[in-house]
Each structure stands twice: as structure tokens, then as C-alpha cells.
Design goal:
The termini are far apart. α2 runs antiparallel to α3, α5 crosses α6 and α9 packs across α12. With 288 residues, this protein is mostly helical.
Length: 288
């Protein structure tokens, strides 16, 4: 089963892409300097996205007293940051949840982990790297995109690894490296490179399980480390672990990059959980 990551290049090129509008939205949300007008133009030009955004802007969640007829008004009602999150969800939820008869895997759980990771990553960025908060949200949302690519490019190998990881109690990325010599972060980075996303974001995805392998400047290194932490915290919340020791047991590298005692960790988890709970009802309206 051992392969080389470069063998995936042709298959990644052949991967069914999200729509052109979805990719443009992803690129704009990852760009911290995106002007509001460009997002308005992209959403207004695609009737499907346009109608879905307006449906959400007119929902009872926002309870706006007048009917919202255009994207400019939707931004006033929802806020630009919320609009971008809505657009990303509309763009990529179907991509994550697309049925694959060749693979028995819970892609809905993967999507839920993606959205939770995005929320956690943005929360940490707001505290430690606020100028790039939107980039962190995008990185959190697509950090496991390599699993989607692998499930479609090498479905038999992917299902074998899902089974192997489950039976051996290894984490999925460890089974990937053992049997394939690469992991979904490597595949995901190639996908995102094809999609022309910023190099810093690509590195966040590529090294989210192996931050020790990143060699670059300190600023990008901080982004990689915070993405690594975001993924772990999302797993902590999703799997309902009890304490810091259990998280360290899941990935001992945590201690190499973050010095948290039990009290500090408890406070951080409480902060992140509160943020996730506040965003939960908002995320649900994407699925109405």
C-alpha cells in the first residue's frame, strides 16, 4: 500500500471541484485584505448563493423588520464576518457531505469537526493573531480537506485506514503515515495549493498534526502552532475528554508548544466552549 505523495498529484488534478463561486469565496475569505465590494459582486453574480444568503438574512434568527433584497443590505443585517461564514458554509457543506458509495465513513462528523475547528481557530486568533482571524477560520474549516480528497482518490486505501485506525486505537494520521508514508495534511496542502490559497494557510493545513516539521519564519510558525492547538481543542470538545492529561495523552506534542497548567487549560476550554455554544445556533441557520 505504500505510496508517495507525488503520486496523488494527477488524482488531485482530477478531483471534482467545488463550484467556481465556492472557490472564489474561499479565496476571498482567506485574504485578510478582501474588500467588501468584491464579496458582494461574487455573491450577487451567482443566483444560487444570492438566494441562499438572502434567505438566511431574512430568517427569524436576525429578525430584521424589513425584507432584505440585496447583498449590501444582508451585510448590514448580518455583519461582514457572519456573511463570510455563511457563504463558506453554503459553499463547502455540500462538498463535505457528498455521498461516496465506495467509502463507509461519517462525513457529517467530519463536517461538524471542521466547523468546530474553524470556530476554535478564530477564537484563538482573536486573542493571539487578530489581524488574521478570518484566515484561521478558513484554515480550521478546510484543515481536513485531504481526507475528502483521499476518500475520493484512493477509496479502498482510505477505508482500510479508517478500519485500521479504529481497531489499533491509533489516530488516523498515524495510520496514514505508517501505511502510505504521507497523511491527509500533505494531501490537503496540495489541494489548497491548486486552489491558490495563501502559503501561510497551506502550511497551517499541512502541519496541523506535525508542527515540529515546519521550518519557516516565526510568524507562520505561530499560525501552524495555533492550528495544531485548535484541532486538538476541537477534538477535546467533540470527544468530551475530561482534562488536560487526557488531551496530552492524545497528542504528547502539545507540551512542546504550549505551557498550560490544569487551571489555565480549564479556563481556555471554558472560553472556547462558550464561544462554540454561541455560534452553534448561528451555524444551524446555514442548514435551514
Amino acid at each position: 500500500m505504500t505510496q508517495h505523495i507525488n503520486e496523488q498529484d494527477t488524482q488531485i488534478d482530477a478531483l471534482d471541484l467545488p463550484s467556481e463561486t465556492a472557490l472564489r469565496i474561499l479565496q476571498l475569505c482567506a485574504d485578510v485584505e478582501t474588500p467588501v465590494s468584491r464579496m458582494v459582486n461574487v455573491l450577487s453574480a451567482d443566483q444560487s448563493f444570492f438566494s441562499q444568503v438572502l434567505r438566511i438574512a431574512n430568517s427569524s434568527y436576525f429578525n430584521y423588520p424589513k425584507v432584505v433584497h440585496n447583498i449590501d443590505r444582508a451585510i448590514i443585517v448580518m455583519g461582514f464576518s457572519n456573511l463570510k461564514e455563511v457563504a463558506l458554509s453554503i459553499a463547502f457543506r455540500p462538498f463535505f457531505l457528498e455521498e461516496n458509495p465506495n467509502v463507509k465513513f461519517n462525513f457529517r462528523s467530519l463536517w461538524n469537526h471542521a466547523t468546530l475547528s474553524a470556530i476554535v481557530a478564530k477564537h484563538l486568533a482573536d486573542k493571539y493573531d487578530p489581524d488574521y482571524a478570518d484566515m484561521y477560520y478558513v484554515a480550521g474549516l478546510v484543515h481536513d480537506i485531504g481526507k475528502i480528497a483521499a476518500s475520493r482518490n484512493i477509496p479502498r486505501d482510505f477505508y482500510f485506514l479508517v478500519e485500521k485506525a479504529g481497531k489499533s486505537r491509533k489516530r488516523f494520521h498515524q495510520a496514514e503515515r505508517e501505511y502510505l508514508n504521507f497523511h491527509h495534511g500533505d494531501i490537503g496542502s496540495k489541494v489548497l495549493d491548486r486552489w491558490q490559497l495563501p502559503p501561510a494557510l497551506i502550511n497551517m493545513v499541512r502541519y496541523h498534526h506535525y508542527p515540529e516539521e515546519f521550518s519557516g519564519d516565526a510568524e507562520d510558525g505561530r499560525k501552524v502552532h495555533l492550528m495544531f492547538l485548535s484541532n486538538l481543542l476541537a477534538h477535546f470538545i467533540h470527544h468530551e475528554l475530561d482534562n488536560l492529561d487526557e488531551l496530552i495523552a492524545m497528542d504528547p506534542k502539545l507540551e512542546d508548544y504550549f505551557t498550560l497548567n490544569s487551571a489555565e487549560f480549564k479556563e481556555l476550554i471554558q472560553e472556547v466552549t462558550r464561544t462554540a455554544e454561541k455560534r452553534h445556533s448561528f451555524l444551524e441557520i446555514h442548514q435551514l
